[in-house]
Amino acid sequence: MSATREHRAPNTPFDPQGAVAVVTGGAGGIGRALGRRLRTSGAAVVALVDLDAEWTTHVAAHVAEETEGPGVVEGIALD
Length: 79
What we know:
Elements: H1 3-7, E1 20-24, H2 29-40, E2 45-50, H3 53-66, E3 72-77
Parallel strand pairs: 1-2, 2-3
Helix pairs in contact: 2-3
């Protein structure tokens, strides 16, 4: 067993504070909700990634407007 696995407690909730989070499918409903949750939980960067550049940018702007948090929210189009 690696040192990392030994150190990590089983079933420990993920703490996104200060993390860089990449959400694939970020322009959809679940991606948007996850982006909101990550930002309000303290993620330093929330990257919403999807195929549709225009819609992804639109959703990222709304997540940034609708939530308070220390991090930035970016919409990125990737294929």
